[in-house]
Structure to design on (477 residues):
């Protein structure tokens, strides 16, 4: 077991049997999969956590299906785990209590793309990359770009408050969610938010639901803010002696007022992995920095020239390569895109953390990461969204005997991150993976307040139990 399952109350067998019958009667057999193979496919995500076999997977085809599922499950005391594409890295979509998995991937309509109001209204099952393409065909732009954009979905992005390389300039998903249609456990439908740019009526319930990891409500529609598509993009790739020099360069760029849309760093061990997978990475490089600027042509060109000068004169830089057209840009991005696959090949097991520190502490984080790897004898490599101080520290190992040392190294990483003024997760969420560490960052009072909020939305603790913090017992079990 790579990630231990939380100790959550399990639904009673008779309740599950009644739920399967009621769901099939209400939604039709074709939308309620109770086959072993069908259910097994929904026990994992991309986090290394494995859930309990659900009794059924509901493939919702409409908001009404979602509502009916949440009403039936609530009445019968059956836990529900919402799911989009299952690319999550923290176990958010893993059904740790079994019960019902509620798949929203078929709610995949782009219902509106509005050039006047600069917004999109979409279903939670729209693939993020499809939304990018639809927007860009209209001269519009949806900036959040998790690296899983080819398969992840807007519902999962909103639930995790996803980030991505472009967050340095444009911010994360929350900055783009104007409103949602959300269904509570029990079936009540709420529409917090708005279609306007401004709006301050009442509490910001929309912002609370963004990043709630499927524990408060299930999204059936999302209204997203768009911007105009930036007409010009320039990309630079800087080769450095080592990661510390690259990290110092990131801090200097931020301090000197550069606002690239992406600033991605890869350390020495990451480059070793890339070379091993056949990527043509310059053998001299001990670290890479990928920097991309965009905007109106004149402004972007000026930003590109300034960034080029800053990178070329940075201490420890070996060479700066530039790309001004789409094909050469793709070539520079190839290494970054190949990372996930390349690092997975290095060892039998891999856990990927996504800690964040203030940008000025990036170099200290990299030093601390290397030191804790040496201290515990655990292989690790680090890459990520350096401009945001958000680094993916990947721990690698091959045998179960090494797992305790990995656990100690991860805990040390969490402690070091908090000591540097950082936070445990920049984009993957707490889920199952980081729940054991939450108390390192947040006080018991703050955790209690969040548990109380969860109980207001979901008094019986049936919606995605066992995530973020251990779920309170639900009376039906
Ligand atoms: C190769 C790779 C690269 C990645 N890069 C990034 C990155 O750059 N930035 C980043 O932020 N993440 C990244 N991720 C992580 C992951 O892709 C994101 O967390 C993404 O937002 C998850 O979307 P999903 O559709 O797969 O959601 P899922 O994994 O299906 O679900 C994620 C969470 O959302 C909840 N949920 C799903 N649908 C709904 C709904 N309709 N209503 C309410 N809750 C719902 C689930 O219960 C779960 O808690 C990466 C993952 C991989 C595998």
């Amino acid at each position: 077991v790579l990630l231990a399952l939380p100790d959550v109350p399990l639904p009673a067998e008779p309740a599950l049997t009644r739920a399967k019958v009621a769901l099939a009667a209400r939604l039709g057999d074709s939308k309620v999969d109770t086959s072993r193979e069908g259910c097994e496919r929904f026990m994992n995500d991309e986090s290394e956590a494995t859930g309990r076999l659900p009794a059924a997977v509901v493939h919702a085809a409409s908001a009404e299906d979602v509502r009916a599922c949440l009403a039936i499950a609530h009445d019968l005391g059956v836990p529900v785990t919402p799911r989009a594409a299952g690319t999550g890295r923290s176990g958010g979509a893993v059904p740790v209590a079994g019960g019902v998995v509620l798949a929203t991937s078929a709610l995949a309509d782009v219902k509106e793309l509005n050039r006047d109001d600069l917004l999109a209204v979409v279903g939670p099952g729209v693939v993020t990359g499809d939304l990018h393409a639809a927007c860009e065909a209209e001269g519009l732009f949806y900036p959040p770009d998790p690296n899983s954009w080819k398969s992840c979905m807007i519902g999962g992005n909103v639930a995790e408050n996803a980030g991505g390389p472009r967050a340095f300039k444009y911010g994360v998903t929350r900055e783009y969610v104007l409103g949602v249609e959300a269904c509570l456990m029990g079936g009540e439908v709420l529409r917090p938010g708005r279609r306007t740019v401004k709006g301050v009526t009442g509490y910001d319930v929309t912002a609370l639901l963004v990043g709630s990891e499927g524990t408060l409500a299930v999204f059936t529609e999302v209204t997203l803010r768009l911007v105009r598509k930036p007409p010009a993009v320039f990309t630079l790739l800087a080769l450095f002696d080592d990661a510390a020099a690259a990290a110092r360069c990131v801090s200097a760029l931020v301090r000197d007022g550069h606002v690239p849309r992406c600033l991605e760093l890869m350390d020495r061990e990451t480059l070793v992995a890339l070379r091993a997978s056949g990527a043509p990475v310059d053998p001299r490089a001990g670290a890479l920095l990928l920097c991309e600027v965009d905007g109106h042509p004149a402004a972007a060109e000026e930003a590109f020239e300034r960034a080029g000068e800053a990178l070329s004169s940075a201490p420890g830089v070996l060479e700066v390569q530039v790309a001004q057209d789409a094909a050469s840009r793709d070539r520079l991005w190839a290494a970054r895109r190949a990372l996930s696959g390349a690092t997975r090949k290095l060892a039998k097991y891999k856990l990927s953390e996504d800690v964040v520190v203030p940008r000025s502490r990036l170099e200290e984080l990299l030093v601390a990461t290397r030191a804790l790897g040496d201290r515990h004898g655990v292989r690790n490599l680090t890459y990520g969204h350096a401009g945001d101080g958000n680094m993916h520290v990947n721990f690698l190992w091959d045998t179960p005997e090494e797992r305790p040392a990995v656990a100690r190294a991860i805990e040390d990483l969490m402690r070091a991150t908090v000591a540097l003024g950082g936070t445990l997760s920049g984009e993957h969420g707490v889920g199952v993976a980081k729940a054991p560490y939450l108390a390192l960052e947040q006080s018991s009072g703050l955790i209690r307040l969040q548990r109380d909020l969860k109980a207001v939305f979901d008094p019986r603790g049936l919606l995605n139990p066992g995530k973020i913090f251990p779920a309170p017992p639900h009376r039906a079990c």
